[in-house]
Amino acid sequence: MWNIALRAKELSGCGIAGIIHRKGELIPGEMILKAICCQYERGNGLGAGFAAYGIYPELHEYYALHVMAQNKQALEKVEEFLQKHTFLNFQEPIPTKKVKTIKDPPLFKRYFVRPKFDEEEAEFCDITAEDDRMVQLVMEINEKIDGAYVISSGKNMGVFKGVGFPDEIAEFFRIDEYKAFIWTAHNRFPTNTPGWWGGAHPFTILDWSIVHNGEISSYGTNRRYLELFGYKCTLLTDTEVVAYILDLLIRKHGLPLELACKAMAPPFWMEIDEMPEEERELYTAIRILYGGAVLNGPFAILFAYNGGLVGLNDRVKLRPLVAASKGDLYFMASEEAAIRAICPDPERVWAPKAGEPVIVEMEEGVIPNQKSYLKPRPAEVKEDALRIGYLPPLLFSSK
Amino acid sequence: MATPQFASFFPDFYIERIWEKCIKCRRCVRECSYEAHIWDPKKKTLYEDHTKCVGCHRCEAMCPTKAIIIRRHPAEFREHALWTPWFIKNVYKQADQGGVLLTSTGCALPFKNYFDHLVLDACQVTNPPIDPLREPMELRTYIGPKPEALEIEEVDGKFRLKKKLPPMIKLEVPIMFAAMSYGAISLHVHQGLAKAARDLGTLYNTGEGGLHASLYEYGSNTIVQCASGRFGLHVDYLNAGVAIEIKIGQGAKPGIGGHLPGEKVTEEISKTRMIPVGSDAISPAPHHDIYSIEDLRGLIFALKEATEYKKLVFVKIAAVHNVAAIASGIVRAGADAVVIDGLKGGTGAAPTMFRDYIGIPIELAISAVDKRLREEGIRHRASIIASGGIRCSADVVKAIALGADAVYIGTAALIAVGCTMCQRCYTGKCPWGIATNNPELIKRLPPEVAYEKIYNLVKAWAHEIKEMLGAMGINSIESLKGNRDKLRAVGLTKEEMEILEVKHAGE
Ligand code: SF4
Ligand code: SF4
Predict the structure, then answer these.
(1) Whether residue B438 has its Cβ less than 6 Å from ligand 2
(2) Closest CB to A221 among B127, B149, B482
(3) Smallest CA–CA separation between A181 and chain B, in Å?
(4) At B169, phi and psi to the nearest 5?
(5) Which of A15-19, A189-193, B242-246, B287-291 has the lowest mean pLDDT?
(6) What residue ranges of chain B are covered by domains with CATH 3.20.20.70?
(7) Of these residues, A14, A37, A38, A233, which one is catalytic?
(8) Distance, CA B23 to ligand 1 centroid (Å)?
(9) Residue B9's Cα: distance from chain center in Å?
(10) pLDDT tens digit string along B182-231?
(11) Cross-chain residue pair A288–B483, CB shorter than 8 Å
(12) From the CB of B430, is ligand 2 less than 6 Å away?
């Protein structure tokens, strides 16, 4: 099924939408579906997907792995791997529905796990190491197990995606049966690669999820930059790098969200040269150090995590992005029409400026595992600890 | 009977004078520093000594009536695939003189030029190309070690750096001027390079011949070199620039030191180099205080101490077989940048065997070094500067896409000021006034002219690089760095593509 020629990079135009409730109230799946379906013309039936946060409250302590597999054997290999490297709390097939237009879908299963460390490596058992270990396990499965991909791996969240129009994919995954405090959705228009299930958005790592409209012309540079830190790009689409860059810059290096966005869509040197001294030093440093993280090319992205939703445009704004709010609900989408379809009377509607992130975080303490990235946090001090590969290597050979 | 000099029987060039055009002004006689044009006062006519012509084309360019054509000498040897005229004549020369064959510039052999087997990408439809005439396009590049992560703090609701960055050098264009010593080239060229570097926002390199007193004012655009001969090296010199380059080797002659023939050592040169007039300045092959990588570390830190850690230290090596491992050692020894000079790198004087046969092509070396430093997790600790054989702006783009941070150009800058690649710089008689210190000859190239030509060249290249970046859909040079997606190979083997980490065109 997947013996298509995959390219290291795909070129696409797309539609995106996202909703967040700042107090953590749950939003029904129909709402996001309506918003994304309103942007029907932005897709061509070759990919659609949804990310939902807050859908596994009873299992929120566990990493929810959504696994997509080509066949039973691949799934068995994943299970064997998880048995060895994780505590597996619960597993089940992801409920799906037969949809006429969707032919030969892959298998979908979800596993709720915590990574296991061998005794002699017990020292790595703190929280950051747990996240790192999880990243490493996901990379390992994606890279080494033929025909199986982890499509999401965060706590209390999950991604549902595939080849089809958004309404078909929503029907297939029974999106109307989920309620979430953050939703993002994507409608894909790939222009020169065949659609494949793994290539649909959102892309994720841990609880980071990204939907993207645009092309990342700097993909080659970004990928090599991430490889330095042990991230492996296996899904063969440019958007994947955004998830890993967020994870690296924010979770690992401790950059506040706003600066991480500025690293990805930096101000021009001529703007930096005009800044007051302290700011100039800061932005100069960001550009010098994080040149490999610059997303060059036209894009609008929405990304979410357990606690927030962020919209960002490239630094010359070559792709559309609109934001709106009403009470505690915030909306972002490619087109205003998509927002008005689900919220006809927003209090505020605005078009974010090029390179200026729209950051909406939830109020403190409203959800489990809540994260806030507005403040800078200390980078992990030991140089090597900044790398994922620093963790003990996995003894695994499946290819 | 005098021993016949076989080499002189078979000149390389033939000076053809079109007598109908010649007005016997004798300009050619004055222009030719090799005395290939001779005026016969008795017969009131001119004749030529073809054996003396080096093919510099000075007379041809200067003749007011365009009466001269310099050609390859038409006399032919019988064909032989192995014993071409080049080898036959070299044997004659050495049999005549018993010496080492000397030459100048870089490798002249048609080894595969990898730049010519790499093509670039451009956007179509899905991603708009960017027009540098209408949108900002950024070439600014920083050279030096970079921490991997930033430490940020928030003060009064504003983010700022917790710790300042270590010193780095800002380049407005990722093209610098390679080490060419005062002595090897004229003071005028040095002045032109220095001023052009300043106006372009880049750096020039003094080479190993010290720094002329008139050039100290260009300090913030200067790299001073510390080579094995240590000519003209004192603490003011070390502090004069923004970086110090330890020259271990150069692409044109890996394994041996610099060589300035005594003919070029004039009064001024002697003062700057701190050596007697007319003496050969031959740098030893090794630095006599570097016999291991620890010793290199010692020198790097001695230089840093001497300059209070304000200057960056570059280490320049020739690209040789083991270049990746050597570069890794250099970075670990504390260098802030490693300069890799490839097989095609130029020189003012080198043994022909060294110039043509020692070292590896720069393209392969860049890729191998970048890869090794990345694998070892030390790529951020030093910049990679590539040099040797960069002929046009597309070569610069390709070098950066292969992993270099910036490049050096040497030969291209000299061609910009009139060099015709006659490859006889070592004689000190450069008729174009470039690789000479003869007071009469250097007048042919005033500093202002040198400045203008060099400035124009780099300005034009910078513009072309912007156009190419725009076509690729990126608007700053950092998104090109190591970006193999932008390169495809045409006509390379699997192995070559593996080393370069590029795909074949069509893939
Ligand atoms: S410079 Fe030209 S015109 Fe003058 S003497 Fe020489 S060949 Fe004749
Ligand atoms: S610099 Fe002068 S001597 Fe050297 S190759 Fe060029 S023209 Fe000939």
Answers:
(1) no
(2) B482
(3) 28
(4) -110, 130
(5) A189-193
(6) 141-504
(7) A14
(8) 6
(9) 34
(10) 999 999 999 999 999 999 999 999 999 899 999 999 999 999 999 998 88
(11) no
(12) yes
Tokens of B303: 């230089």
By C-alpha distance, the chain A residue nearest B142 is A288
Of the candidates B146, B152, B478, which has its C-beta nearest A259's C-beta?
B152
CA distance A291 to B174: 15
Atom of ligand 2 nearest to the CA of B424: 3
B246 in Cβ contact with B183 (< 8 Å): no
Tell me the C-alpha distance between B501 and A356, whole Å.
35
Q: Which of A372, A373, A374, A326 lies closest to A350, judged by CA?
A: A326
Nearest to A376 among B128, B154, B482 (CB): B154
pLDDT confidence band for B112 (50 / 70 / 90): very high
Say whether B126 and A191 touch across the interface (CB within 8 A). Answer: yes
pTM over 0.80: yes
User: pLDDT tens-digit profile of A311-367?
Assistant: 999 988 888 999 999 999 999 999 899 999 999 999 999 999 999 999 999 999 999
Cross-chain CB nearest to A218 (options B125, B146, B479)? B479
* Tens-digit pLDDT profile for residues B335-347: 999 999 999 999 9
pLDDT in tens, A381-399: 555 555 655 555 554 433 3
Cβ contact, residue pair A220, B482, below 8 Å: yes
Copy the structure tokens of residue A332. Answer: 């972002």
As a CATH number, domain A11-396 is: 3.60.20.10
Distance CA A97, CA A69 (A): 17
Sign of CA dihedral B319, B320, B322, B326: negative
ipTM, two decimals, is 0.91
B211 lines ligand 1 (CB under 6 A): no
Q: Which fold has domain B141-504?
A: TIM Barrel (3.20.20)
A265-293 mean pLDDT: 96
pLDDT at B266 over 60: yes
Enter the tokens of residue B121.
Answer: 């990408």
CATH of span B10-99: 3.30.70.20
Q: Where in chain B is the domain with CATH 3.30.70.20?
A: 10-99
Q: Where are the domains of chain A?
A: 11-396
Number of Cβ within 10 Å of residue A307's Cβ equals 24
pLDDT of residue B352: 96
| CB contacts < 8 A (A, B) | 136
Q: Which of residues 355-384 of A touch B (CB under 8 A)?
A: 375-376, 378-380, 383-384
Q: Does the distance separating the beta carbons of A288 and B168 come in below 8 Å?
A: yes
CA distance B246 to B227: 6
Structure tokens at A111: 């596993």
Taking only the tens place, the pLDDT of each residue in B364-400 is: 999 999 999 999 999 999 999 999 999 999 999 999 9
What is the structure's pLDDT at A111?
97
* pLDDT for the residue numbered A22: 97
Check whether A107 has a pLDDT greater than 70. yes
Q: What six digits make up the tokens of B224? A: 């001073």
Mean pLDDT value of segment B74-97: 96
Give A-chain residues touching B148 at CB under 8 angstroms: 253, 289, 383, 386
> Which segments of B170-234 does DSSP mark as H helices, in order?
187-200
B424 lines ligand 2 (CB under 6 A): yes
Q: Hey, of A189, A223, A224, which one would you mutate to test binding to chain B, going by the most B CBs within 10 A of its CB?
A: A224
For residue A393, is the peptide bond before it cis, meaning its omega torsion is within 30 degrees of 0?
no
In the prediction, which pLDDT does A230 show? 86
Our answer to whether residue A37 is catalytic in this structure is no
Chain B nearest-CA distance from A61, in A, is 29
How do A48-53 and A157-162 pair as beta strands? antiparallel
**Res A5 pLDDT > 50:** no
B473:A281 CB<8 A: no
